[in-house]
Each structure stands twice: as C-alpha cells, then as structure tokens.
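Deliverable D5.2: sample structural annotation.
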Amino acid sequence: MEAEYENTPCKMLKINIFITIALLLINYNVKAQESFITIRGKVIDSETKQALPFASIYIKEESIGTTSSSDGSFIFHIPYAIRSKTVVISTIGYETMEKVSSEFAANEEIHLKPSTLELSEVIVTADKPPTARQIVKLAHQAIGSNYPSEPYMLEGFVRDLEKEDEKYVELLEYAAKFLYQGYKYTPKVELQEVRKSFETEKHAWNTGNEQQNSIGDLIEDDFIKYEFSFIKGSRRWKYDIESILPFNNGAVYKIIGVNPPFEKVNLYIDVNTYAFVKIELNRSKINGKYYKRRFTNGQHEANYTMVFEYQKIKGQMYLKYQKEVDTWDIFKGLESGKLLFVKQFTKELFVNKIITDNVSDYPFNKNLKTTETIESQAKSYNPEFWANYNVPSQTKLESQILKELEKASIKID
C-alpha cells in the first residue's frame, strides 16, 4: 500500500500532462479550421442548366483559387484574413460573376450567363479586321511580353489516373510546388504530400514498360515554352476564327486550327493583349491509320489531348489548369496485328496558388527524384495538410472509380 501511495502523484502528473496535450491538440485543430472559411457550390449554365467544368474560382487581386470539377462542383477554402475580398467565378464564353464570400449560400448554384460577341464589337480601330493566321502570329510575337520572365512559383494538386480498356488500374493524387526562373525554364519540383495512391493488378505487358514518374509528362509538353508550330501560325496549319467570346470582363478570339488529317487545335487569344488564354490540342488516328508516334515495345499512340489554361496576374499569364489524356493501342509487337489492350493515362494539374513576389523567400525544397516513382517518395498521410488544401471536389464518377480501386487494389500509401 505504501509503494502504491508513493506512485500516485506520478500517475496524476502523467494524466495531467496527457490531458494538457490533448487539449492543446484540440485547440490547434480548432484554430486551424477557424483560420479558413469554406464555400461550396456548383457552376452551371443559366440557360441550359448544364454543369460548367473547370471554371475558375479565385479571390480578386489575390493569387489563390480553385477550379470546378468536371460536374461543375467546387470547394474553396479561403484564408480568414482575406474573407471579405471578392470571389470571382469565370469561364470562357460566359459573363463573369463577382461576389463577396460571406454572401454565398450553402452549396449554392452559380448561374453564369452564356454570351458571344460580334467582331465589330471588339475591333473598333482597324480598317480591316485581322485574319485568323495574323492573330495567331501576333499572339506568338507577344509571348515575351505576356508570360513571366522573372522567377515565380506555382502550387497545385495533381491527379494521375490510368485505365486498361474499361478498367481503372491506378490512381495517384498529390500536392506539389513548381519553381520557375521564367516561362522558358523547366521548373524545379517539390513533392509536398500524397493524398491517395491505389494500384490494381495490371496487364502482364506492363512488366518492364511502366512509366516511372508521371510528373515529367506535365512539364515536358509546354506549348508556350517550346513554341509548338500551331502557336506560330505555321503554313501547314489552316486557321479560322470560329467566334469571339467574353472572358473575365474582356473578350477572346476562338480560333480553330487544323493540320490534316490528324491534328486540330483550339486557340483562345485575348483580343487586346494577344495572350494565349487557353490552348486545346487533339491528335488522333483516322480510320485506323496512325500518326507516327510508336515504340518498339508495341505501343501505337491512338489519341492525344492536351489542354492548357492560363490566368492573368499583374499583367502576366500564369498556368491555371493543365490536362493530358494519352491513349495507346498496345500490340503484341511493333509489326503485330494482335491488339492486347488499350491503355489510357489522364493527368491533371489544378493550380491553386501563384507566388510572384519575393519568390526566393518562399519555402521551397527541391526533393522530387524524377527517376523514382512518386509513390516511393511519399511520406505518411498528413490529414492536417489536406484539411484546408484546395483540391477539386470529388464527382460521382470519381467516387465510383475510387470505390472500385479500393476494393481491387494494393493500397500503396
């Protein structure tokens, strides 16, 4: 009894310490939640009531934002310190909406009004309106003044989804920082956190043919940096002005470019600055005939789609959203006629923060090893990091894909 009595103060001290730590953790989590306000909603066409995917939702005169998902839904975590600033919701072809965050209702439907403009409404000084090719050439000439030459950093959420025939076989989601010395430079990359990583059993062909690191694809096909032929007004491309559309209280030309028989591009160009606001490229096989992108292991590229969309900050254009969908027909051998399966990669980058001032003072740790998989470099899941990190809201389809992968997969994280 005497020994038990002597140990009681020690036990009580331990209990008190435990309670104190628990209260501190609770207080920390409450403060973390209170440091942000969250708005949720869905962006739709005011006339058709159809969802508007990949609309921009951001704080006016600030560099943080998010993007609506493929079903138009969004979740936006706004730092409490700027809660009274105006939220801007915009997408090409629609009138822009501006609203203070406190005015949003819970799960509000945001109705954007579609609109088109006449050429005469935007060309008021020229005796003769420019041709589509002239507009593209002017946009190419203006790249140096429209895109940043000084260092900047992007923060964003990356989703990498892989499918074999109709079966989803891999999902990877992570946050990363991209440090640029200017638009002409390849960025250094910091892998921040991995949110989800699932992989199922794949076709035996993948042994020895798997891609090691998905982030390389997102930074290597930069149309602006490498000045692809279709943004230069190349003679092999045929261009037409399809329409003039409103965007962010201004207007853009929508120009269709065609390089028969395999390639088509949509170029959205600001009517005043000639900045490329959005670029959509599609390259696909025609009537079973492939364009010349194949490998000796039996891969023939059947379809390639790349989308870049930019946002203007302080007069310069910065990447806001990027998507690549790459589809390959996998044959038993390069000259074989036996199709084993169809493989498709979908990679998306949703930029949620752009740092343009005092970039060298902003925390950054170049830690990504491009020769190793993202999964092998992942840390343990960090719920605090993801609590208020701006990611696209999950759609019903994505929820179903995740559910199927969770059932069938080897969980990596």
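Annotation notes: Confidence is low (pLDDT under 50) at residues 1-7, 19-33. The CA atoms of residues 76 and 382 lie 19 Å apart.
The annotation will be released with the project's public dataset once the embargo ends.
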